[in-house]
Design a protein that fits this description.
7 helices; TIM Barrel; mainly beta
């Protein structure tokens, strides 16, 4: 469907107008180019040339609505000036070339508009629904408040659909923005769906039933609806309790009193043949939708990202005998909606990472299988296409998947996951559900030698002795594993060599603000040099804080393996906008220096005269003077207090 042979087409929407013409809209992606929305029509067996739009910025998720009179409308999200906004256009029957767009509602500064939906009302005029998102913060945790908004087209353009709530029909914070906790949900909570009735208009959405988990979270959803009677919106109503991924699909018109929909149903023991249910109810049977009091979210306040969280950037360059390096920041483990319990469109996440998360490299990693859903090859193709559309000079974007391997419990570890980062296309695939990844040996046999990096993570793991395991994820949004497990320390003591990275493992749409990041010393910002630096272990892990941590032995950078002929000479330089509270320098996991600091700068030198001949593992830890709070699940302060250097392996004597 796209014009170029090297392009991918995703987010395809189709509508047939009242004159028998088929209209198709899609997002086209290609290497090194921003995604664009295109539209074509099929008339009398002939496809038109592509219609595109005069936007000049990344575009995604087109939707179409066609009227009985032949009128067609298209809406999509376009990214400009640091945020998405919804735009619309009305292509004429003979439209061609590049068309202008209309902005129905200009978003307030700092807010974004995403995931539009269109529907033609009984009067032939279009209605538009979308989600408006606002960045917020509470106790250092960054989140997102969201509303479901609807506009109606009239003679004077797009206007609120009526009622005192202006464009807003419903608040979408329930189950998404924590009151006390947060738990993932296998549904699409940011997908409004419009549906016309001869006498009114409906908008539907879904939500998580509560913040807490149940054993089968797929069943923990509610299908919600709200009716506009021509003068204003009625109260939100509960259409169905239980299930997830609700859709009215192509049913754009309701007839009579019946509402029909499809959804994923909970698994039924002994029946694995189908997980889709087709259901219906009468409007008279709908009940009022239970709501939290609005003030339970009142302590979440708007925040200007990234500066309000990251603060002034630390110095960004260092020099060493091996060359000059720039310090850049990344998060190589961020989940999108392709992980069943997460939210976020991949393009949305990567743009957030770059412009709100202040990241220089990022990877979208989705679970290969969890729960009950397999990550498809087409999804991986999409992740690749999105990553390759980014200009490396602005952000090096990667794609991959989480190998959710669970070892046998008899003497093994219940988890031994890998964040698989791909840096070249057409790599082998070894999902947990494939014969090539059904067990660790099969995964290693399939993936060894590929253009991938494997980062073990979570509170427990075991290395497989492969060069792809150059680094381990030791801090995440789930917690600071360096503090509350000894998995990293045990592996270092056992003689394994790996660098330390931080990654949010984020399921809440905030890469770079999810409680863990990696500092990386690179020769340039290209994907090639990001990969080279990761393979060289020139990295350090933090719980989200941004600082310069330059640790060396005999002027060799962290991650290196060195030979020392005399006394090892240690050097630690730290630059932080936040005051440093405490520093530890360790040899073979035993402290050789511990001291407090009352400034944001350190230049510390030490001759380790007590180091005996043989190999030693040196590393450094820095704690900033900052209040740290603990939260459940994947909730974490965006900027914590800890930073951990990668080790340096120094052999004393013998050469």
């Amino acid at each position: 469907m796209p014009a170029g042979e090297d392009e991918f087409a995703f987010h395809v929407a189709a509508e047939c107008d009242g004159r028998g013409r088929l209209w198709v809209a899609y997002t086209a992606w290609s290497h090194g180019r921003e995604p664009r929305v295109g539209v074509r029509r099929l008339e009398d067996g002939e496809w038109s040339d592509e219609i595109c739009f005069d936007v000049g910025c990344p575009q995604m998720r087109p939707v179409l609505a066609a009227g009985r009179d032949g009128a067609v409308w298209v809406a999509f999200a376009a990214y400009a000036n640091g945020g998405f906004r919804v735009v619309t256009a009305e292509p004429a029957a003979d439209a061609a070339g590049r068309l202008p767009v209309e902005v129905p509602v200009d978003p307030i500064a700092g807010r974004q508009q995403l995931f539009p939906d269109l529907c033609i009302g009984a009067d032939g005029m279009p209605w538009l629904a979308w989600v408006t998102c606002t960045d917020v913060v509470r106790d250092g945790v960054v989140g997102r408040q969201a509303t479901l908004d609807v506009a109606r087209r009239g003679p004077e353009g797009w206007r609120p659909a009526g009622g005192p709530r202006s464009f807003t029909v419903a608040h979408l914070d329930w189950g998404m923005l924590p009151v006390e906790t947060y738990w993932g949900y296998n549904g699409l909570r940011y997908r409004p769906q419009l549906c016309a009735h001869p006498h009114d208009m409906w908008v539907f959405w879904e939500r998580h039933r509560s913040e807490t988990s149940i054993p089968e979270n797929v069943a923990n959803g509610q299908f919600c609806g709200c009716r506009h009677d021509g003068s204003g919106w009625g109260p939100p109503q509960l259409v169905h309790n239980g299930g997830s991924c609700f859709t009215i699909g192509g049913l754009r018109r309701l007839e009579g009193e019946t509402i029909e929909w499809a959804c994923r149903r909970p698994p039924i023991p002994g029946d694995e043949t189908c997980d889709i249910a087709f259901l219906s109810t009468r409007r008279s049977r709908l009940t009022a939708l239970a709501e939290y009091r609005a003030d339970v979210w009142s302590d979440w306040q708007p925040v200007n990202l990234p500066g309000a969280i990251t603060g002034p950037p630390p110095p960004s360059t260092i020099s060493a005998p091996s060359g000059d390096y720039e310090l850049i920041w990344g998060d190589l483990h961020c989940h999108s909606y392709y992980s069943p319990d997460a939210e976020g469109e991949p393009l949305e996440l990567l743009l957030y990472a770059r412009d709100r998360g202040a990241l220089d490299f990022c990877c979208i990693i989705d679970n290969d299988y969890y729960p009950h859903i397999v990550l498809s090859e087409s999804a991986l193709d999409y992740l690749y296409a999105v990553a390759q559309s980014f200009d490396e000079s602005n952000m090096a974007a990667f794609w991959g998947y989480e190998y959710t391997y669970h070892e046998p419990h008899e003497g093994g570890r219940p988890k031994n996951h890998r964040a698989v980062v791909c840096y070249e296309r057409d790599q082998p695939l070894a999902r947990r559900t494939d014969a090539s990844g059904a067990e660790a040996r099969a995964f290693v046999r399939t993936m060894r030698g590929s253009a991938t990096l494997w980062h073990p993570h979570h509170e427990e793991w075991a290395l497989w002795g492969c060069k792809e395991e150059e680094n381990a994820e030791v801090v995440a949004g789930w917690g600071d594993y360096m503090q509350w497990t000894d998995v990293c320390q045990r592996h270092l003591a056992a003689g394994h060599r790996f660098g330390l990275t931080g990654a949010s493992d984020n399921h809440r749409i905030c890469p770079g603000m999810g409680g863990a990041v990696t500092g990386l010393f690179v020769r340039s910002r290209s994907r090639e040099h990001v990969v080279e630096a990761l393979k060289a272990r020139r990295c350090f892990a933090t719980t989200g804080c941004r600082l310069l941590l330059d640790f060396r032995v005999d002027d060799h950078l962290q991650g290196e393996v060195v030979q020392v002929s005399g006394t090892p000479r240690l050097r630690l330089s730290v630059r932080s906008a936040t005051e440093i509270e405490h520093v530890r320098v360790l040899r073979n996991e035993q402290p050789i220096a511990c001291f407090s600091v009352d400034t944001g700068e350190i230049d510390w030198y030490h001759a380790d005269e007590t180091a005996e001949p043989g190999e030693h593992v040196y590393r450094a830890e820095v704690r900033l003077r900052r209040e740290v709070k603990q939260f459940p699940h994947n909730i974490a302060q965006a900027a914590g207090a800890m930073a951990y250097s990668s080790p340096i392996w120094a052999t004393v004597g013998g050469g």
